[in-house]
Amino acid sequence: MAEKLTITLIKSQIGKPEKHRLVLQGLGLTKLNKSVVLEDTAQVRGMINKVSHLLKVSE
After folding, report:
1. pTM of the shown model
2. Is 31 within 8 Å of 9 (Cβ atoms)?
């Protein structure tokens, strides 16, 4: 079974560039302190790296 990542939005997306907001929407993070569990894939890791300053990631 593939690894799972728990991703939590810890900083607001207000005032951030449109690209960052679209990445967060793609991850399924719309509200502050919302958490999602996603598969650990290269695509998800790339999205996390783009907005890592807004997120908390745990395995």
Report:
1. 0.90
2. yes
